[in-house]
């Protein structure tokens, strides 16, 4: 009995223990407990990660688990660091919850439906924000003439419904509306490939973590815009079909958003398509390479997008990516959009999704209007405003990439501008230089619009006197005569386009004119018969025979033989010639449809024309004088303004130039009658018709000329050699002509003065007082053959020898000496101040007479007066004998007091001294 009771009690205890163990194994683990386990397992002490939990338990190794997905880079696209924490659905009451963690870099598989359990409220009140792009006003003159030639493919792979976040739909809606409403691109020209396409099943996770079906209408017009599911086959068929029909005049935009990854085995980036498909760079490039599209513009916002650049780049392609090959891309911190592509689209739209106006930095057209926002400018704006670039954000980094053919027409591509794919041009060699500050100080109202353009100085057109222009691409003066009538003209034509210029598809015309500051409209048009006032003639007008590839240039040579008549005229005038060139297609519109006052600007506003109006001067030879023509080819009287500017040395030097300009008597007369106005210019007091311009910049205004009036202008340039010239130096003087009324530059010429090494000229002046009271000034310290000019304080020439004698003066007077080298016209100056020398040396009074002695002999027509102390009444006066050194005047009858001795020369009182009697 006791044994049986013991056994029974023992069995009871064993059963209780067994039941207790069973009860412990059956305790369930809640989702919140699973979250706590995952947070601890990932050491997320700062709550930086987002957490999602499987909607149902997951079976793994014959056990059931809560699958907790941990996004360690919330806001980044895939692929990026993450973790899967598998937490047991049950636990023992006496033990910790069993779990195991798997570190990954990939998104959740679409077979597991994940629910948000702890997700940062990233967008707050902005979670429902959608872009709304206003439609263009059809009556506001904003018609996009290129809309019919603009095509787009919008691709958002989606990957799966857990990874297909709402912000990617927002991105696609924003660019779609921008294309349709801002740029008027036809709906049929836009193909949208997104996630599961038109399938009504859930395929997108919205900003609240709910699963929904992607809306098919991207622009809120009630018409479905999403046509295709993002499968590889659909992408291939859409791109190949579209590219095949595109022409050279068309622009294709490929816009890619959503997820991307990097294949470590293939060492390639890829685009994540729907249902885990992958699209690699080589495949995409193959499909885009069918057909003959003018431009293909590719914008990629997915992770690792920079890995597509190498495969996709091409001369007619712009490839912009949100990040580099080894980087992730990120969403906006506070808005439900992707950061980089959001700013890119905002730049093109002109407004962001919140309606704020944005302005991408762009250039200004000659009309004053802003240029279109090009694809390059949109990239620059997005790169600047992306919060993840350049270390702006502490936990994430994006390095946007851009590939395009530099200095090509690709830089002009915009959604409302499709530039030609072949674009030949000739550079004018000019850089706009704002001279407003200098000229404004002279006359702020009249000259505030002036800009220095120097477009007459092209380096792509040059003349040679022998056939060596391929090796020596430098312009030289023509050396023509009755015995040598030929020259060689070279033109460098460049292809700024993105496709080759085929043989005989473009033409080049070149012609010449006598050197003139303003080229007439007839000459620019090539109508030499009408151009009777300016000598001119054609050189060539032919097809360009050779192919010119994008970014390349071609030098074209033409030999030209002057007629005997033209040679005789040119030699008589002693002037150089101006070269003009025009590269064109027969289908190009005329550049001369504007009025006479605007045709030059029409020519200069295009890079199809070029002008080389440049003269080289060599002071050691006979070509030290620059001769040009100023001709008023307009129908009415014109007031011209001439601006002379020293553009510095092509070789560093301190050498300055003294400039003189000679004009005809009629022009000089009208200038003087108008007040001889200008800046840093004055009439030469010694030579009629000359103006002195001794400054780095001079302005001559109010040069009034009647219609068809022609004036010959001569420039003389003298190097001022206060220091030695140690190496060959070139000084450039630019002469520009402006319309006084409009401030528009009408033409100009450049003079290049070549200076060879030479010693300095450092004249000195020695001064000697002569016995007769005059001074002798002698030039010294001169070691070469020179000419001399002595000038008084007003600049008038008073002597030309190496010495000059001057009278003693009643006041200090400055004299200057200009010395000019006979060999090369180099000059320098020296000055001497001749101090005032008093005539009266001493006055003595013995009571009966006054004895006055002089420092210098008395000059002709001189008398001496004794006056009262106030100088109001004459007490005594006598005429002095010329040359005398003293004088005695009786004053016996003069009462005691203070008196004044005064010398009078030629009726003018020149000196006084008081004395006591």
Structural overview:
This protein is 15% helix and 34% strand. It is built from 13 helices and 53 strands. The protein is elongated, with a radius of gyration of 45 Å. Residues 1-14 and 431-450 have low confidence and may be disordered.
What would you call the shape?
elongated
- Proportion of residues in extended strands: 25-35%
Number of separate helices: 13
Largest sheet: 7 strands, mixed
Kindly state the mean pLDDT as a whole number? 86
Distance between the termini: 175 Å
Overall helicity: 10-25%
Rg is 45 Å
Secondary structure category: alpha+beta
Which consecutive residue ranges, at least 5 long each, have pLDDT under 50?
A: 1-14, 431-450
Strand ordering within the main sheet:
13-10-9-14-18-19-20
Secondary structure: number of strands: 53
What is the gist of this entry?
15% of the residues lie in helices and 34% in strands. The protein is an alpha+beta fold.
Strand and helix layout:
Layout: H1 2-25, E1 27-28, H2 31-41, E2 50-54, E3 58-60, E4 63-71, E5 82-88, E6 90-91, E7 99-104, E8 114-118, E9 150-156, H3 166-182, E10 190-194, E11 204-205, E12 211-212, E13 226-228, H4 232-245, E14 251-257, E15 260-263, E16 268-272, E17 278-279, H5 281-288, E18 295-300, H6 309-312, E19 317-321, H7 339-349, H8 375-385, E20 401-403, E21 424-425, H9 436-440, E22 461-464, E23 486-495, E24 507-514, H10 521-525, E25 536-543, E26 553-561, H11 564-573, E27 577-584, H12 599-604, E28 609-612, E29 614-617, E30 625-631, E31 638-649, E32 656-662, H13 665-673, E33 678-679, E34 682-683, E35 690-693, E36 697-705, E37 710-720, E38 729-739, E39 745-755, E40 764-769, E41 774-780, E42 786-791, E43 797-799, E44 803-807, E45 813-821, E46 827-834, E47 840-845, E48 849-854, E49 862-868, E50 874-879, E51 886-890, E52 898-905, E53 908-916
Parallel strand pairs: 9-10, 9-14, 10-13, 14-18, 18-19, 29-39
Antiparallel strand pairs: 1-6, 2-4, 2-8, 3-4, 4-5, 5-7, 11-12, 15-16, 16-17, 19-20, 21-23, 22-23, 23-26, 24-25, 24-27, 27-28, 30-37, 31-36, 31-38, 32-35, 32-37, 33-36, 34-35, 38-39, 40-41, 41-44, 42-43, 42-45, 45-46, 47-48, 48-51, 49-50, 49-52, 52-53
Helix pairs in contact: 3-7, 4-5, 7-8
């Amino acid at each position: 009995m006791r044994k049986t009771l013991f056994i029974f009690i023992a069995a009871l205890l064993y059963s209780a223990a067994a039941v207790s163990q069973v009860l412990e194994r059956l305790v369930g683990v809640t989702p919140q407990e699973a979250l706590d386990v995952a947070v601890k397992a990932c050491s997320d002490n700062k709550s930086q990660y987002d957490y999602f939990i499987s909607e149902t338990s997951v079976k793994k190794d014959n056990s059931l688990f809560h699958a907790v997905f941990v996004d360690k880079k919330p806001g980044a696209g895939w692929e990026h660091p993450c973790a899967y924490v598998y937490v047991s659905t049950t636990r023992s009451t006496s033990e910790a919850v069993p779990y195991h963690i798997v570190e990954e870099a990939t998104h959740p598989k679409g077979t597991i439906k994940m629910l948000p359990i702890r997700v940062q409220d990233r967008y707050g009140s902005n979670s429902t924000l959608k872009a709304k792009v206003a439609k263009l006003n059809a009556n506001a003159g904003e018609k996009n003439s290129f809309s019919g030639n603009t095509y787009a493919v919008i691709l958002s792979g989606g990957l799966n419904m857990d990874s297909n976040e709402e912000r990617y739909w927002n991105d696609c809606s924003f660019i779609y509306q921008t294309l349709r409403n801002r740029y008027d691109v036809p709906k049929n020209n836009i193909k949208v490939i997104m996630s599961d396409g038109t399938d009504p099943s859930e395929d997108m996770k919205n900003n609240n973590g709910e699963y929904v079906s992607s809306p098919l209408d991207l622009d809120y017009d009630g018409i479905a815009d999403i046509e295709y599911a993002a499968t590889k086959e659909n992408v291939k068929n859409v791109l190949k079909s579209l590219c095949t029909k595109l022409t050279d005049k068309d622009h294709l935009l490929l816009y890619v958003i959503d997820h991307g990854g990097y294949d470590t085995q293939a060492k390639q980036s890829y685009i994540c398509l729907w249902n885990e498909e992958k699209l690699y760079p080589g495949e995409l490039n193959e499909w885009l390479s069918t057909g003959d599209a003018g431009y293909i513009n590719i914008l990629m916002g997915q992770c690792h997008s920079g890995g597509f650049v190498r495969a996709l780049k091409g001369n007619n392609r712009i490839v912009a990516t949100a990040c580099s090959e080894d980087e992730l891309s990120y969403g906006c911190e506070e808005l439900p959009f992707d950061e980089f592509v959001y700013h890119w689209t905002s730049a093109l739209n002109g407004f962001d999704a919140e309606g704020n106006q944005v302005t991408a930095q762009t250039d200004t057209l000659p009309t004053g209007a802003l240029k279109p926002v090009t694809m390059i400018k949109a990239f620059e704006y997005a790169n600047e405003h992306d919060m993840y670039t350049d270390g702006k954000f502490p936990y994430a980094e994006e390095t946007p990439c851009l590939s395009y053919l530099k200095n090509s027409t690709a830089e002009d591509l915009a959604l409302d501008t499709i530039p030609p794919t072949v674009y030949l041009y000739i550079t004018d060699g000019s850089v706009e230089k704002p001279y407003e500050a200098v000229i404004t100080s002279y006359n702020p109202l009249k000259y505030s619009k002036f800009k220095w353009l120097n477009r007459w100085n092209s380096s792509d057109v040059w003349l040679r006197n022998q056939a060596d222009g391929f090796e020596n691409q430098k312009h030289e003066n023509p050396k023509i005569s009755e015995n040598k009538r030929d020259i060689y003209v070279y033109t460098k034509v460049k292809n700024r386009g993105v496709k080759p210029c085929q043989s005989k598809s473009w033409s080049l015309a070149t012609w010449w004119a006598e050197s003139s500051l303003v080229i007439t409209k007839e000459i620019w048009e090539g109508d030499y018969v009408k151009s009777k006032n300016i000598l001119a003639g054609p050189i060539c007008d032919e097809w360009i025979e050779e192919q010119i590839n994008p970014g390349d240039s071609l030098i074209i040579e033409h030999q030209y033989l002057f007629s005997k008549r033209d040679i005789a005229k040119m030699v008589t005038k002693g002037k150089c010639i101006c070269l003009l060139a025009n590269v064109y297609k027969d289908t190009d519109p005329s550049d001369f449809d504007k009025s006479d006052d605007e045709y030059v600007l029409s020519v200069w506003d295009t890079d199809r024309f070029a002008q080389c109006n440049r003269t080289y001067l060599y002071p050691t030879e006979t070509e030290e004088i620059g001769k040009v023509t100023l001709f008023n080819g307009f129908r009415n009287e014109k007031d011209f303004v001439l601006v002379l500017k020293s553009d510095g040395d092509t070789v560093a030097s301190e050498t300055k130039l003294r400039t003189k300009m000679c004009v005809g008597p009629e022009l000089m007369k009208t200038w003087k009658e108008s007040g001889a106005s200008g800046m840093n210019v004055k009439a030469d007091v010694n030579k009629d018709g000359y103006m002195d311009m001794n400054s780095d910049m001079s302005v001559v205004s109010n040069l009034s000329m009647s219609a068809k009036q022609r004036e010959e202008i001569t420039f003389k340039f003298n190097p001022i050699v206060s220091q030695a010239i140690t190496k060959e130096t070139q000084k450039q003087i630019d002469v520009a002509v402006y319309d006084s009324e409009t401030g528009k530059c009408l033409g100009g010429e450049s003079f290049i003065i070549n200076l060879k090494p030479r010693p300095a000229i450092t004249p000195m002046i020695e001064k000697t007082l002569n016995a007769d009271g005059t001074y002798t000034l002698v030039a010294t310290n001169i070691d070469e053959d020179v000419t001399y000019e002595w000038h008084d304080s007003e600049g008038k020439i008073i002597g030309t020898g190496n010495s000059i004698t001057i009278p003693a003066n009643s006041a200090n007077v400055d004299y200057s000496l200009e010395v000019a080298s006979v060999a090369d016209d180099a000059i320098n100056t020296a000055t001497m101040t001749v101090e005032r020398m008093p005539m009266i040396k001493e006055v003595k009074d013995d009571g009966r007479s006054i004895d006055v002695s002089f420092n210098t002999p008395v000059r002709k027509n001189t008398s001496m007066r004794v006056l009262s102390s106030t100088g109001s009444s004459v007490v005594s006066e006598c005429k002095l004998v010329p040359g005398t050194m003293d004088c005695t005047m009786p004053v016996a009858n003069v009462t005691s007091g203070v008196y004044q001795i005064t010398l009078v020369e030629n009726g003018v009182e020149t000196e006084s001294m008081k004395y006591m009697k």
